[in-house]
């Protein structure tokens, strides 16, 4: 069951002053609304008390209504209720109604000096031999939100068990569509492996620091998990992510301390826990930690390895790198190794060996690491976890915020003026070209000027890399730099593509090898950072864990942003976050119990959840809906002749039912005739009739009668494309004035049209996948 979480959800209306782990661990806190909540709000009412309270909670949180505002709203509601109502009108009663929704949690204490785990928080000195310091202040703690209880709650939702079974219905081919197609998952699936059992599940985890306030260095470090067996879009929803732990304060977590309860939970899950499913009944479920993803600083913490700017900083191979001069200082770089670009390989076995040896060496020698390993990692204690292959390369931080951001700086930053690779004098021209681009509604952010580059988000770098960059840079940067950049663009498209083939992944690897090999000659060896080096391992990341989007940090960063929005004040940060996330995780369960599908309450609930949702009209096919008004339209001679050619018969009338907007398999397609689209362009599509395929721009849609049946057709201008290739997503096209007609069923996907009138160039950009759209 899916449930959209409002972007600006505010849970302050049910906020506690401080967490009480004892109260929150009680059994009554695990129950959802009682039977009284299923009763009508008052005798004869069409809405139940539970549904009314849920709608009111969503409304007040969505619009950030203060406590005083809620109190006044409750009093207004009281004025119209009969005396026999079952509604609590005080703010406290309203808060109490939701307090039992909080997840159970556990506090774990640690030494403020050494960050070592404290078994007994009542002790006055640290029990660790290396510390033994006296506690002069309140012993700090971090939170564990028990994973098993959260999973049990998920299984109680109807339909949840069935959603986990999609991996058994995948076609048998060599294409990479999801994490199931990677070798790491297959190793747990084939030959009767544990993940071949429909009752078992696996996880990808993430942890990263997020700054809470601009005025101080307080940060939060959540441990988040996704359930791999859920369909991609459902597993990435905020309410379906598991918040396993929360570290907060002014210092980074000690991972050996922070991950200790997490490890114990996964050991228990590995053995199997009892689950009661609304669909399946009672059974034993086993859970496996399959992979983890993080940015480079967080990765070094969880792996207990050196930072990205140190020797042996790569977690996939044992290349040492070297020190290079940059400006007045020095940096650590990883030059391209021509003989063995991605070797020697780092393995779990040599990580274990290095961890054991460095512990002994530290006792007698001043050595801090061995091959980049600083000591044992707690990840080595997780059952069946591959500490090398299971740590993903995150393309969000590595490629977008790393490589693409670096290239834009080298090309256009003033500090590099005079370098052969710098084109700062043409930056205004690039801005003009970017302003001409009207992306589809799938892209949340419009192109921005290079003047705002320091404010660009990772999604904006992704749009530039995959769609805008190549078309706009062709006339700006030198041909050698442009051809070099195209290799990165094409490779990333293939690695992000839904259903890439083995040959395409191999081709992407060749392109990235060539990109890295030429980089130092075109720019300088001092810019061959770890982010550049990791490109040679990127294809292996897909082979191991599936397409790059299945293990990127994008969804986790979104969840981190949401967690920060739940913080409304400087006090009791942990309480605020747990309150908000608990409410969000319980929303699907609350809605299932309180609000019936396709009722007025359901419609109102959806409008509060997502006020921007487009109202669907008539359904005209599988996942195809008319949007907006349907009007009668008289065709002019050009469009009438085009329809005649399509039908191969002269229609008996020139007036047809017409509309401008369509939703096709969750894609919005708006005809050029839809005048309200100013900054967006949803008219360009890729079509395939079986005998003809290519690109076109839709003018409008019509209902026509053909063979005693009603058919929906699109009137289009075809875009002439000289060479259609499936290994690249950006194609040069030419506009035509010829109007043709195609059936709506032949439209396969929407595309971005990059029309650059000042250069007389026009390009069509295809999405590598529609799973990761903004």
Overall average residue pLDDT: 88
Q: Which blocks of ≥5 consecutive residues have pLDDT under 50?
A: 1-7, 20-32
What shape does the CA trace take? globular
Q: Biggest sheet, in brief?
A: 9 strands, antiparallel
CATH-level-2 architecture of the domain at 616-766 = Roll
As a percent range, the share of strand residues is 15-25%
Helix content: 25-40%
Rg of Cα set: 29 Å
> What is the CATH C level class of the domain at 616-766, in words?
Mainly Beta
Question: How far apart lie the N and C ends?
Answer: 21 Å
CATH topology call of the domain at 616-766 = SH3 type barrels
Number of strands: 25
Number of helices: 23
Secondary structural class? alpha+beta
Protein model, in words:
The structure is a single chain. By secondary structure, this protein is of the alpha+beta class. The protein is built from 23 helices and 25 strands. It is 33% helix and 19% strand. The model is unreliable at 1-7 and 20-32 (pLDDT under 50).
Short synopsis of the structure:
With 774 residues, the protein is α+β, with helices and mostly antiparallel strands.
Layout of strands and helices, then pairs:
Blueprint: H1 21-24, H2 49-62, H3 67-80, H4 91-99, E1 106-110, E2 117-118, E3 141-144, H5 147-155, H6 160-163, H7 183-187, E4 201-207, E5 210-211, E6 219-227, H8 232-235, E7 242-249, H9 255-258, H10 260-271, E8 273-277, E9 281-285, E10 287-293, H11 296-303, E11 322-326, E12 329-333, H12 348-364, H13 395-412, H14 427-435, H15 458-473, H16 479-496, H17 502-522, H18 530-533, H19 538-545, H20 554-565, H21 573-594, H22 600-609, E13 616-621, E14 624-627, E15 631-634, H23 637-647, E16 655-659, E17 661-664, E18 667-670, E19 684-688, E20 693-706, E21 709-719, E22 730-732, E23 739-743, E24 747-756, E25 761-766
Parallel strand pairs: 4-10
Antiparallel strand pairs: 1-2, 1-3, 3-7, 4-6, 5-6, 6-7, 8-9, 11-12, 13-14, 14-17, 15-16, 16-20, 17-18, 19-20, 19-24, 20-21, 21-23, 22-25, 24-25
């Amino acid at each position: 069951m899916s449930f959209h979480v409002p972007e600006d959800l505010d849970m302050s209306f049910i906020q506690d002053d401080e967490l009480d782990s004892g109260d929150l661990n009680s059994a009554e806190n695990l129950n959802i609304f009682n039977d009284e909540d299923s009763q009508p709000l008052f005798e004869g009412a069409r809405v139940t008390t539970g549904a009314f309270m849920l709608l009111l909670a969503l409304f007040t949180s969505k619009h950030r209504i203060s406590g005083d505002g809620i109190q006044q709203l409750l009093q207004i509601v009281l004025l119209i209720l009969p005396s026999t109502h079952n509604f609590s009108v005080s703010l406290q009663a309203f808060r109490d109604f939701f307090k039992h929704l909080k997840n159970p949690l556990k506090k774990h204490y640690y030494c403020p000096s050494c960050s070592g785990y404290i078994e007994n928080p009542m002790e006055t000195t640290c029990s660790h031999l290396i510390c033994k310091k006296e506690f002069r202040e309140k012993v700090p703690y971090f939170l564990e939100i028990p994973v098993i209880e959260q999973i049990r709650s998920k299984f109680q939702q109807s339909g949840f068990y069935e959603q986990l079974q999609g991996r058994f219905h995948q076609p048998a081919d060599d294409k990479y569509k999801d994490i199931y197609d990677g070798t790491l998952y297959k190793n747990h699936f084939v030959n009767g492996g544990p993940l071949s059992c429909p009752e078992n599940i696996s996880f990808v985890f993430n942890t990263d620091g997020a700054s809470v306030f601009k005025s101080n260095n307080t940060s939060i470090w959540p441990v988040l998990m996704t359930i791999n067996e859920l369909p991609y879009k459902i597993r990435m929803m905020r309410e379906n992510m598991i918040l396993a732990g929360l570290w907060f304060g002014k210092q980074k977590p000690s991972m050996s301390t922070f991950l200790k309860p997490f490890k114990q939970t996964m050991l228990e899950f590995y053995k199997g826990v009892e689950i009661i499913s609304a669909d399946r009944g009672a059974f034993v479920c086993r859970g496996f930690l399959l992979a983890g993803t993080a940015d480079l600083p967080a990765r070094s913490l969880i792996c207990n390895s050196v930072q990205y700017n140190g020797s042996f900083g790569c977690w996939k191979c044992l290349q040492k790198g070297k020190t290079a001069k940059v400006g007045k200082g020095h940096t650590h770089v990883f030059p391209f190794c021509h003989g063995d670009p991605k070797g020697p390989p780092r393995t779990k076995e040599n990580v274990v060996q290095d961890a054991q040896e460095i512990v002994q060496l530290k006792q007698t020698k001043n050595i801090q690491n061995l091959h980049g390993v600083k000591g044992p990692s707690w990840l080595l204690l997780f059952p069946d976890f591959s500490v090398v292959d299971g740590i993903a390369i995150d393309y969000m931080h590595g490629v977008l915020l790393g490589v693409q951001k670096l290239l834009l700086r080298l090309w256009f930053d003033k500090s590099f003026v005079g370098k052969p690779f710098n084109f700062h004098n043409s930056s205004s021209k690039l801005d003009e070209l970017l302003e001409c681009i009207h992306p589809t509604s799938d892209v949340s952010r419009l192109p921005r000027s290079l003047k705002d580059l320091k404010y660009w988000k990772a999604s904006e770098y992704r749009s530039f890399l995959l769609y805008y960059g190549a078309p706009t840079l062709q006339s700006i940067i030198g041909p050698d730099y442009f051809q070099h950049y195209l290799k990165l663009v094409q490779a990333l498209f293939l690695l992000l593509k839904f259903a890439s083939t083995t040959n395409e992944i191999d081709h992407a690897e060749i392109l990235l090898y060539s990109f890295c090999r030429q980089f130092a000659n075109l720019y300088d060896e001092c810019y061959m950072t770890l982010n550049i080096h990791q490109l040679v391992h990127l294809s292996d990341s897909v082979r191991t864990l599936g397409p790059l989007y299945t293990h990127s940090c994008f969804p986790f960063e979104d969840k981190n942003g949401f967690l920060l929005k739940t913080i409304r004040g400087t006090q009791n940060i942990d309480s605020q976050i747990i309150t908000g996330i608990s409410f969000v995780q319980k929303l699907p369960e609350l809605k299932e119990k309180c609000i019936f599908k396709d009722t007025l309450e359901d419609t109102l609930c959806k409008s509060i959840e997502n006020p921007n949702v487009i109202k669907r009209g008539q359904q005209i096919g599988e996942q195809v809906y008319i949007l907006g008004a349907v009007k009668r339209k008289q065709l002019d001679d050009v469009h009438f002749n085009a329809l005649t050619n399509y039908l191969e018969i002269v229609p008996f009338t020139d007036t047809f039912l017409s509309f401008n907007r369509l939703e096709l398999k969750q894609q919005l397609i708006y005809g050029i005739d839809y005048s309200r689209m100013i900054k967006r362009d949803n008219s360009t599509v890729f079509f395939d009739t079986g005998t003809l395929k290519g690109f076109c721009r839709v003018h409008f849609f019509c209902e026509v009668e053909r063979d005693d049946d009603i058919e929906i057709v699109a009137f289009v201008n075809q875009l002439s494309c000289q060479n259609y290739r499936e290994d690249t997503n950006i194609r040069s096209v030419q506009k035509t004035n010829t109007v043709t007609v195609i059936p709506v069923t032949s439209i396969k996907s929407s595309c971005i049209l990059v029309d650059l009138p000042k250069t007389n160039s026009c390009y069509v950009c295809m999405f590598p996948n529609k799973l990761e759209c903004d």
